[in-house]
Amino acid sequence: MNKICELFKIKYPIIQAGMVWTSGWRLAAAVSKSGGLGLIGAGSMYPDILREHIQKCKKATDKSFGVNVPLFYPKLEEIMSIIIEEKVPIVFTSAGSPKLWTASLKKKNIKVVHVVSSVKFASKSQDAGVDAIVAEGFEAGGHNGREETTTFTLIPMVKAAITLPLIAAGGIATGGAMLAAAALGADGVQVGSRFVASDEASCHPSFKDEVVKAVEGSTVLTLKEITPVRMLKNSFFQKIAALYEKGVDVEELKTTLGRGRAKKGMFEGDLDEGELEIGQIAGLINEVIPAAQIIDNLIEEYDQALKNLKSY
């Protein structure tokens, strides 16, 4: 049996990324009911809102689901307490040291997965005792690694360095990409951008439409001096680009960024002044469809790609 399916008790080794302003209970429940692993994105939720989403997800499905927690979260202890109290079975951590919470969560029989963008942090995550690792390449949307290592390069490097189950992320939105990740040594895939353009995603419909309109070159990784983030090119991005042209001043970058940019763009639908986080693969996404159809398409495309390889 597939290692990821066995670990999470799911039908398909497909994990829906826990993205800010996008991954609410509706999306997580829909993915889990369809055979994947749905994740609630805690990064954009106050503690009481997270509890509400967890409880609604429990009512919506009896399948496994989890919560993604960025470890720079300001109310981290409260968030983790809620996760433990609500008996969430799986936690994906990111943007911080896996040593912070792995042991405490595992004592409560919670499976822990850490998201990394380098071999160095994959090894540190394994040493910290996590159950699996997500290796996310440069192609991915949202907050990203500074190394700019692509998924195709990162997965085999991480595979050679660890013994844990490995989940590939970054630029994966088709069954063919799933097969490629498997060929490189991944035991499963984490899919983000494709699920942004789903009926159940909690982000603003205008943002979903912008994702569908995206083409090759529509996104860029920027703001490395603060926290690297991949986003669509819009008016806000042009302001950032202008600052880089005249010479980077970190404090001026921070002032221009301000607070709540991702919420403004992704949740409230301000396409000009918001931060529109999405991956390079957006150029391959052409429609907004139900999460269940996304899962079905991934499996059908995977099977077809596998058949095609026999005549390669």
> CATH class of the largest domain, please?
Alpha Beta
The helix/strand series, from N terminus to C terminus, equals HEHEHEHEHEHEEHEHEHHEEHHHH
Number of helices: 14
Low-confidence sequence ranges: none
- Compute the number of strand runs: 11
Roughly what is the average pLDDT, rounded to an integer?
A: 94
Q: Ends: how far apart?
A: 26 Å
Oligomerization category of the chains in this entry: single chain
Q: Might you state the CATH topology name of the largest domain?
A: TIM Barrel
Q: So, the CATH homologous superfamily of the largest domain? A: Aldolase class I
How would you characterize the largest beta sheet? 8 strands, parallel
Cα radius of gyration in angstroms: 18 Å
How are the strands ordered across the major sheet? 1-9-8-6-5-4-3-2
Question: Fraction of residues in helices?
Answer: 40-55%
Gross morphology: globular
* Count of distinct structural domains: 2
The structural class is alpha/beta
What does this structure look like?
- The chain has 312 residues and is an alpha/beta fold.
- It has two domains: 8-202 and 283-309, Aldolase class I (TIM Barrel); 205-281, no CATH class.
- It is 43% helix and 15% strand.
- The chain has helices spanning 3-8, 25-33, 47-60, 76-85, 102-107, 119-128, 151-161, 175-183, 193-196, 205-213, 235-246, 250-257, 261-267, 291-309, and strands at residues 14-16, 38-41, 65-70, 90-94, 111-116, 132-136, 142-143, 166-169, 188-191, 219-222, 229-232.
- An eight-stranded parallel β-sheet has the order 1-9-8-6-5-4-3-2.
- Strand 3 (65-70), helix 4 and strand 4 (90-94) form a beta-alpha-beta unit.
- The chain starts with a helix and ends with a helix.
- The model has no long low-confidence stretch (mean pLDDT 94).
